[in-house]
Design goal:
The protein is an alpha/beta fold. It has two domains: 48 residues, no CATH class; 333 residues, Aldolase class I (TIM Barrel), CATH 3.20.20.70. Helix content is 45%, strand content 13%.
């Protein structure tokens, strides 16, 4: 962020910059000031300072595929455009065999991770989920399975008639590598009741992740912003994430999610803008000093804004994805996928060193001077998969 020091020197946020520069943790009041500031340049410069300390000049991506096993759901969250009832013509559910076939196709493209979530299905048995995990691990034991949101885990515990801990242990034994961060929305009860009445509470979300972390496992987390919440609600959400991270150190990254206003039941007059997304990513990076990574989710932002976010605190632009339903059913206009070459190119264009990562944000390949995928002679994706997974 060339020239930003000038803005900091003249900014009302100079004291917060000095805290971050000295390695001092900022307060909730500081975070609210950052959100309320009109000086986005200064906020971004402070976030970029915090990012550089964490990741230097590197920015990461993952070669992955999304699979939604079903959109049937017993809940009716007001903000959700994905869920369907059994009576709906566009509802779907996949068999384990269909999921395995999707994974087999994606393995040919060099994926290292499957990201699998779905609705709270009214009738699928618990064995469906464990059979799915085992079948996918049998397909390739090195494939990292990042599956299920916290509310899905609560649903599966109910199906299995087990505690959350027992359910997580059984899923882990079947092949689950990581929990997804979806479903956090905004933790404050009053906001949650407006956008996701009947869903798990913020406390329940955090407790599922706490239990998973205490089993020695890791997960991501999210924050859905730009709907009916206030800026203070966002700070409160980040406060609770930072507190759990202090306790467990189990979160690998925060993925801020921009609310998609189309095709749902929440009237939002001013949906999140690019400005709002950049400041949210920036404040998250500055405040969450115990998180190593902040992801700019290109599906919700668009790739161009995700590139800009790499100078506003983000150090990751997520994955190739291949087939994303949830945000696109809510009105996202971004592509359904990005190639690995697209990801590498986007990172290089902003002057960063691309790093292919695994599910835990650990490097698989650092592309210091390597040619962009697709610019070299094609030696076969299977060889790429073999090399990548061998180091994952």
């Amino acid at each position: 962020m060339c020239g930003m020091n000038f803005f900091i020197q003249r900014s009302e946020l100079r004291d917060i910059h000095d805290k971050v520069a000295a390695g001092v943790r900022i307060t909730e009041a500081d975070a609210l000031r950052l959100f309320e500031s009109k000086d986005l340049n200064a906020v971004g410069a402070i976030a970029d300072l915090a990012r550089q300390r964490k990741s230097g000049n590197r920015a990461s991506y993952i070669v992955n595929r999304y699979i939604n096993y079903s959109n049937y759901c017993i809940l009716s969250c007001q903000f959700c455009s994905f869920a369907r009832k059994k009576r709906d013509a566009d509802g779907f559910e996949l068999s384990v065999e269909q999921i395995v076939e999707k994974a087999r196709e994606a393995l040919k493209l060099g994926i290292t991770e499957l990201h699998i979530v779905g609705g709270l299905h009214p009738s699928l048995p618990f064995s469906y989920y464990t059979d799915m995990l085992r079948a996918l691990k049998q397909l390739d034991s090195r494939l990292q399975l990042k599956c299920f949101t916290a509310i899905e885990i609560l649903h599966l515990a109910w199906l299995a008639k087990k505690t959350v801990e027992q359910t997580l242990i059984e899923l882990k034994d079947a092949g689950l590598a990581s929990l997804t961060g979806g479903g956090a929305e905004i933790f404050r009860k009053e906001v949650r009741s407006q956008i996701a009445k009947g869903k798990e509470s913020g406390e329940e979300y955090l407790d599922v992740h706490r239990t998973w972390h205490k089993l020695g496992q890791r997960s991501t987390c999210t924050m859905l912003y730009g709907h009916v919440e206030t800026l203070a609600d966002r700070v409160d959400h980040l406060r609770q994430l930072r507190a759990l991270q202090d306790e467990t150190h189990g979160f690998v990254a925060l993925v801020p999610l921009a609310y998609q206003p189309e095709d749902n039941n929440i009237p939002v007059t001013h949906p999140p803008t690019g400005y709002d997304s950049l400041r949210t990513i920036a404040v998250s990076r500055i405040y969450l000093d115990n998180f190593d990574h902040i992801t700019a989710y290109w599906v919700g932002l668009g790739m161009k804004l995700a590139q800009v976010a790499l100078s506003y605190g983000a150090d990751d632009i997520h994955g190739t994805i291949i087939e994303e339903h949830i945000f696109h059913m809510a009105g996202a206009t971004s592509p359904q996928l990005q190639t690995e070459a697209d990801m590498v190119k986007a990172i290089r264009e902003v002057g960063r060193t691309p790093v292919q990562r695994n599910s835990f944000y650990e490097p698989i390949r650092i592309l210091e001077n390597a040619p962009v995928v697709g610019e070299q002679e094609n030696t076969g994706h299977s060889k790429v998969l073999e090399d990548n997974l061998a180091t994952a």
